[in-house]
Amino acid sequence: MATKEQVFRREFLTFVMVVAAAIFFYPAIFVIFNALKPEAQITLNPMGVPTSLFFDNFARAWKVMKFPTVFLNTLTITAFGLGGIILASSMAAYALARNDSRLSWLLYGFFVFALVIPFQIIMVPIAVLAADLKLTSIPGIIPMYWGLGVPTAIFMFHGFVKGVPRELEESAAIDGAGQFYIFFNIVFPLLKTIIATVAVIDALWLWNDFLLPLIVVKEGTIQLAQMAFNGQFLKEYGPMSASLTLSALPIVLFYLGLQKYIIKGIAAGAVKG
User: Fold this and answer.
1) 219 C-beta neighbours (distance < 10 Å), count
2) Of 39, 41, 61, 125, which is least surrounded by CB within 10 A?
3) HEC string of the chain?
4) Same domain, 26 and 139
5) Is 59 a member of any domain?
6) Per-residue pLDDT tens for 50-81?
7) Per residue, what are the HEC states of 163-205?
């Protein structure tokens, strides 16, 4: 039976966690409240609860942003970018993890080193390269995301692949299975936990990225379309909040659907190998 001291500690910890959750959730609640208020009410009481539901902000955000178009563009970037990152990084991590040569470890070290390079350092060369290779479009930006996202994904996949028993692959090889068959039919299905983790982390990044589309395609994504409400002399806080709510909803639902795999995948990738 728990003592009074243990009960007090548990209740105090619960209280601290509730307060912390409220602090973290407040910015999202603040945005949703302002999305449901007219501009005058936002100016007078930006922190308050809306007195009535005002949906005109969503209608204006939908129209001004051309939401169906920018949503499709952002979805295309996220889907194809994520698919390429997962496919390329899982195959590369498998090859590196199953090869113990010095070249393999050198290549792995090269990918790990890429994690510490800030994007701001390579931002200008990427913009120049994109212009030279005629990649300043929605399809053109996708390979850039592959290159930027693969190092982190390889780092996560590498540790997890080393925990996959080699006996499974050896048994399949004895039966005459080729390397690609072994990977896609035996190893890849066993990576579903870390695949879900990489998918959630990179999908959040791809969907919400602002800087790379800004310097490469200039327009056409949800994040860039939101700039229409943030002018030099006029800021439309109501439609801006509504646009933030509309853009966040799909990726939040995606995150909630896969969140149970995040900690499991990261923990497994960190301890295996």
Assistant:
1) 14
2) 125
3) CCCHHHHHHHHHHHHHHHHHHHHHHHHHHHHHHHHCCCHHHHHHCCCCCCCCCCCHHHHHHHHHCCHHHHHHHHHHHHHHHHHHHHHHHHHHHHHHHCCCCHHHHHHHHHHHHHHHCCHHHHHHHHHHHHHHCCCCCHHHHHHHHHHHHHHHHHHHHHHHHCCCCHHHHHHHHHCCCCHHHHHHHHHHHHCHHHHHHHHHHHHHHHHHCCHHHHHHCCCCCHHHHHHHHECCCCECHHHHHHHHHHHHHHHHHHHHHHCHHHHHHHHHHHHCC
4) no
5) no
6) 888 889 999 999 999 999 999 999 999 999 99
7) CCCHHHHHHHHHCCCCHHHHHHHHHHHHCHHHHHHHHHHHHHH
The Cα 148–Cα 88 span in angstroms is: 12
Q: Measure the CA–CA gap between 64 and 243, rounded to whole angstroms.
A: 10
Please name the residue that has the structure tokens 């646009």.
Answer: 243
Kindly report, residue by residue over 151-172, the tens digit of the pLDDT.
Answer: 999 998 988 888 888 888 888 8
Residue 177, both tokens: 């299975």
Q: Which domain holds residue 45?
A: 1-54
Domain co-membership, 50 together with 69:
no
Does residue 70 share a domain with residue 33? no
Q: Which residue has the higher pLDDT, 89 or 234?
A: 89
Q: Are residues 207 and 75 in the same domain?
A: yes
Claim to verify: residue 50 and residue 110 sit in the same structural domain = no
Structure tokens at 101: 């040569």
Quote the number of domains for the chain.
2
Going by pLDDT thresholds of 50, 70 and 90, the confidence category of residue 146 is very high
pTM for the structure as a whole: 0.85
Within this chain, do residues 120 and 185 fall inside the same structural domain, yes or no? yes
- Give the CATH number for residue 172: 1.10.3720.10
Q: Are 251 and 203 in contact (CB under 8 A)?
A: yes
